[in-house]
């Protein structure tokens, strides 16, 4: 449908759309927490024994079990957890005994920083490769698309270990793991590891989008007027392909959050991905559920931001 004739009406529709999406977020996160809680019950091991340590006596283990509520029936534990979650209480970590929310709030900015840097690298590299593939000779197009498919096929854990071996062990150019200040040399390897598959995907999307518009009538008209190819691409073709590229980038940013768990664990990046990995290893239910909920909320917000961005770059989209 055509856009509403008045900007104020468009803003009202957009605001209503955003509010409706935000109101659905708590129910989605509640469903995620319920599913994760049920799945964690299937994991082997006793959380009370893990908290007490391998050398603790049976009395100490039983005391911890009663203190943490593990002796109660599972439905009672589930209802208690959901009631605490509704109040914004994610519980206390079994490992550190500190509130999960306070720990995640410290680690979350580091994960967001890594994700944004990786996405920025991926968008720049992917769009440039896509433009080159769409505007060069067929052989160059084929070679670039083969590279993009190869980058999508590489497992993240294998790619991370390969980059560590190449740049840290052989060339000794970058540190293999760790964290110092955020935007420093330590972020290069994990960001590149996350960016390589995304760059390959964006290169394919950009190439397909540009190839569609390069055969359009307005491109032939622009060429007939004597405009240079570079001006046609960046001034006329690329703006029309922005929605497809933005959609792919937003969708892949959601996928990138899943890969962060592996990358942070391998490179020792102290974000909530590594936090969730450690929680899973120690059966730390509150920490794991809290980390997954923050990942879920991040994905929901990214999808909402992409949908709103559609309306900004394309006035024909309406939200009612």
Describe the structure.
By secondary structure, the protein is mostly helical. It is 76% helix and 0% strand. It contains 13 helices and no strands. It has helices at 7-40, 47-52, 58-68, 74-86, 100-135, 138-153, 156-170, 188-214, 217-224, 229-240, 242-267, 272-281, 285-313. The termini are close together. The relative contact order is 0.14. The model has no long low-confidence stretch (mean pLDDT 82).
Secondary structure: elements and pairs:
Layout: H1 7-40, H2 47-52, H3 58-68, H4 74-86, H5 100-135, H6 138-153, H7 156-170, H8 188-214, H9 217-224, H10 229-240, H11 242-267, H12 272-281, H13 285-313
Helix pairs in contact: 1-13, 5-6, 5-8, 5-11, 5-13, 6-8, 7-8, 7-11, 8-11, 9-10, 11-12, 11-13, 12-13
In round numbers, the mean pLDDT is 82
Bin the strand percentage.
under 5%
Helices, by number, come to: 13
Q: Percent range for helical residues?
A: over 70%
Round the Cα radius of gyration to an integer and report it.
24 Å
Q: Order of SSEs, N→C? A: HHHHHHHHHHHHH
Low-confidence sequence ranges? none
Instruction: Tell how many strands the DSSP assignment holds.
Output: 0
The rough form would be described as globular
User: Could you tell me how far the N terminus lies from the C terminus, measured between alpha carbons in angstroms?
Assistant: 10 Å
Class derived from helix and strand content: mainly alpha
Largest sheet: none
């Amino acid at each position: 449908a055509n856009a509403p004739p008045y900007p104020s009406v468009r803003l009202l529709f957009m605001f209503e759309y955003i509010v409706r999406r935000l109101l659905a977020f708590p129910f989605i996160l509640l469903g995620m927490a319920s599913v994760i809680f049920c799945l964690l019950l299937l994991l082997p091991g006793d959380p009370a024994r893990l908290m007490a340590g391998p050398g603790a006596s049976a009395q100490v283990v039983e005391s911890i079990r009663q203190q943490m509520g593990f002796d109660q029936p599972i439905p009672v534990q589930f209802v208690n957890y959901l009631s605490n979650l509704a109040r914004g209480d994610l519980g206390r970590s079994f490992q550190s005994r500190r509130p999960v929310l306070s720990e995640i709030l410290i680690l979350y900015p580091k994960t967001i920083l890594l994700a944004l840097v990786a996405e920025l690298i991926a968008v720049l590299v992917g769009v440039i490769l896509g433009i080159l593939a769409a505007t060069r000779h067929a052989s160059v197009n084929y070679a670039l698309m083969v590279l993009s498919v190869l980058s999508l096929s590489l497992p993240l854990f294998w790619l991370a270990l390969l980059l560590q071996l190449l740049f840290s062990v052989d060339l000794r150019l970058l540190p293999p793991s760790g964290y110092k200040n955020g935007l420093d040399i330590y972020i290069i390897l994990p960001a590149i590891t996350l960016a390589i598959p995304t760059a390959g995907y964006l290169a394919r999307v950009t190439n397909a989008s540009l190839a569609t518009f390069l055969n359009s009538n307005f491109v032939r008209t622009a060429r007939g007027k004597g405009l240079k190819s570079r001006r046609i691409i960046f001034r006329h073709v690329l703006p029309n392909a922005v929605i497809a590229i933005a959609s792919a980038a937003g969708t892949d940013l959601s996928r990138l959050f899943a890969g962060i768990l592996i990358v942070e664990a391998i490179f020792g990046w102290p974000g909530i991905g590594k936090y969730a990995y450690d929680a899973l290893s120690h059966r730390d239910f509150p920490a794991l559920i809290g980390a997954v909920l923050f990942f879920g909320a991040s994905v929901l917000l990214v999808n909402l931001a992409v949908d709103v961005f559609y309306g900004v770059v394309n006035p024909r989209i309406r939200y009612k």
